[in-house]
Amino acid sequence: MGKVTVIDHPLIQHKLTMIRDKNTGSKAFRELVKEISMLMGYEVTRNLPLEDIEIETPVCKTKSKTLSGRKLGIVPILRAGIGMVDGILELIPAAKVGHVGLYRDPETLEPVEYYVKMPTDVSERELIVVDPMLATGGSAKAAIKFIKDRGATNIKLVCLVACPEGIEAVQDMHPDVDIYVASVDEKLDEHAYIIPGLGDAGDRLFGTK
Q: Model confidence over 135-155: pLDDT tens digits?
């Protein structure tokens, strides 16, 4: 079973409080989501492999650590996931970016992909799937499946706010995927909104209703 990591760094929790506030406007919301995503990126990439190389400092030659060259990718779930990409790219600018777009069929209620674009070498990359909210888990489960269908085998899911129902749903379908969140909230309400949550992340990012 994949692990669930709650990243409770004080800076993350402080900024999370700010984006929960209904009075935070779209500009500040976008900036804060980017900042939280960057801070979460430190924990998400904690176990990247290192190797020794020899360099020369102004004083002498020495062996020092460098990333071993593992290929990384960031995959936002459209549309709200876009808000998390730039923060992680600040840390790993060489990462490739894929995209997953899906909608729920109004009759079957099943997720349907309308856009999936992955790096050509997706099977060789560690992918970080990002979406601000993990509510029912339906979108995340489907997105991860669509990515796996294209050859990906090493996937992490990163969300700002989750609820127990969404975490359980993803773990049941994708027990090989580790989940990273800034908060596990109380529950879903009757409209499938996370309580206390932060509202509709996409609308708040882009100023739509």
A: 999 999 999 999 999 999 999
pLDDT at residue 109, as a whole number: 65
Token pair for 121: 């070498």
State pTM to two decimals.
0.93
Contact status, residue 182 vs residue 16, Cβ threshold 8 Å: yes
Q: Amino acid letter at 65?
A: K
